[in-house]
Design goal:
Rossmann fold, 37% helix, 363 residues, alpha/beta, five-stranded parallel β-sheet
Length: 363
């Protein structure tokens, strides 16, 4: 039996996925066009919650299918030839050898991490034992229970039990409501959360939060906000805490989608998306699209995210790898971590640089 807020989330998803139509004829071209606009509703939600059992997928290749989002409420044809259940399950893996690192006893244990994002289903099995604190930034706000997929994915990709790069880390989750009038109000929530993190670290010098993951970035023309954020980052760094948000992330890294198959561990499966340019080729690529994450539609429900190459999903993965490295070397700074990432990156067959978590952690 679902809770009230879970039922509300399911209804919200139904409304969202009803806003766009699927192609009348399912072909690779038609479906690639459907999800080609990064950040559009079809690219985010794809086949989620749809009954597509009467549609003909025979002209759809596996390479195109893995670009489509779907979830456990998607109803496929009885004779569907693609093993979507296997894709959903195996794509929970963080990829690039992280699962093998976990088997060697390095999972972020003892490292405190924080995510600042929108309300989530904190009782999901993916986060069982991971959440040390679920803190409302504005406790009186009426939208604090209006759950959002964004924060759920970010938390899971950082330290989820199955999906997380650091699935032994302790998570401090700071919640801001998904309602704000402008970017000043939006970032005001983040600044308040950073104040709360600073207060925690000052009061708990032996149990500080080491990494803050923020899957958002400042517009280039808002130097007032950027300067303020940099001041907060410097303040936290003095307590041994590193704040990683889009602007900082993009100095060294970019994102990549799993394009060619559902093998998360093969570096050559990660490619640039159509919206990315030559700048991204020079950065170290971090997995983002082609991953399964928990869904707020139930404590045991998941969604395959399809071809969503974005900083939002790459940042928590990177923070998770940083947490693994910190478990091994507690004195490691973020700058030193970035230098290790540069020196150890895997060079793919197309000349792309892919992060190598194993070498970062053990070399």
């Amino acid at each position: 039996m679902f809770s009230r807020k879970t039922n509300e989330y399911i209804k919200t998803l139904e409304r969202i996925t009803s806003r766009y139509d699927l192609p009348n004829e399912l072909t690779d071209t038609a479906l690639n066009n459907l999800v080609s606009a990064s950040g559009s509703l079809p690219s985010i939600w794809g086949l989620c919650g749809r009954d597509v059992s009467a549609l003909d997928f025979k002209a759809v290749s596996g390479e195109t299918f893995i670009k489509l989002a779907f979830n456990e409420y998607t109803v496929f044809p009885a004779d569907f030839m693609i093993d979507y259940k296997r894709i959903l399950e195996e794509s929970k893996k963080p990829g690039l050898g992280v699962s093998e690192i976990h088997k060697r006893g390095i999972n972020g244990n003892g490292v405190n991490v924080a995510v600042i994002d929108k309300p989530i289903l904190e009782t999901h099995q993916e986060l069982t034992g991971r959440i040390k604190k679920y803190e409302l930034i504005n406790p009186e706000n009426e939208y604090n229970e209006e759950m959002h997929f964004h924060g759920m994915t970010c938390a899971a990709f950082l330290c989820g039990n199955d999906c997380g790069a650091a699935n032994g880390a302790n998570l401090y989750y700071y919640v801001y409501p998904d309602k704000f009038e402008d970017d000043g109000m939006y970032w005001g929530y983040h600044f308040k959360a950073l104040d709360m993190i600073a207060e925690h670290n000052q009061a708990n010098p032996a149990d500080t939060i080491k990494i803050v993951s923020i899957s958002a970035g400042f517009p280039r023309d808002r130097t007032d906000l950027t300067d303020k954020m940099n001041d907060y980052a410097e303040k936290l760094k003095k307590t041994g805490c590193y704040t990683i948000f889009s602007n900082v992330f993009g100095e060294t890294f970019s994102c990549a989608s799993k394009i060619t198959s559902f093998d998360n561990d093969d570096p050559d499966n990660y490619k640039l998306d159509s919206w990315q340019n030559d700048w991204h080729k020079r950065q170290i690529l971090i997995p983002s699209g082609g991953r399964t994450s928990p869904c707020c539609s139930g404590n045991d429900k998941y969604i395959y995210n399809g071809n969503q190459s974005c900083f939002s999903w790459a940042i928590p993965y990177l923070c998770g790898v940083f947490a693994l490295a910190l478990q091994v070397d507690k004195s490691l700074s973020y700058m030193d971590f970035c230098e290790k990432a540069k020196k150890t990156a895997t060079v793919g067959t197309e000349g792309l640089y892919i992060i190598n978590p194993t070498k970062i952690v053990f070399e």
